[in-house]
Amino acid sequence: MAEPWTSVYIDRFQITSEPAGPATLTYLYTDALLGAGQQEADWQQVQQDPRFRFGIGAISKAANPRAKWNVTGSSFTLWAPVGPGFGQARVLVDGAPAGQIDFHADRDGPSRPLFILKDLPPGCHALVLKGAAGAMPVDCLDVHSDQP
Q: Which of 27, 64, 68, 81 pairs with 16 at a CA distance of 20 to 30 A?
């Protein structure tokens, strides 16, 4: 655009576009274990496991497992597999009880949305899973933001 030994001054650079719609970010199980300060030894990390959405996840080995995602958004979709070896977990959002999840099923089932929470105020939130009984699988969390 410019010949050698010349100068170009740019006083404005602007890119514009129409919003593509709500943004969705997916956080893996690793974010949840890190967010809860969990020890690796207390979890069986699995790879190439078709029960998990992306083939990877974790299953608790210790009593009272905990997972915590720290995210920014306005709604969540929690994905997890179900099966005979799994139990239940309590869900807390920003420290308040938000529901319960039952991971137990008579047969193994692939990961699917097990908990959806909408209409949160946009901003930073903490979603915590506290194992209540049995092993707890941790897969991934979709975080949706309605802001462009």
A: 27
Cα-trace Rg, the chain: 20
CB 89 within 8 A of CB 100: yes
Q: How many CA atoms lie within 13 A of 52 on its CB side?
A: 19
Q: For a pLDDT cut of 90, what percent of the chain falls above it?
A: 78
Instruction: Tell me how far apart the alpha carbons of residues 68 and 72 are, in angstroms, rounded to a whole number.
Output: 13
Task: Scan for tokens 């974790």, then name that residue.
Answer: 58
User: Residue 96 in 3-state DSSP?
Assistant: strand
How far apart CA 114 and CA 51 sit, in angstroms, is 14
Model pTM score: 0.84
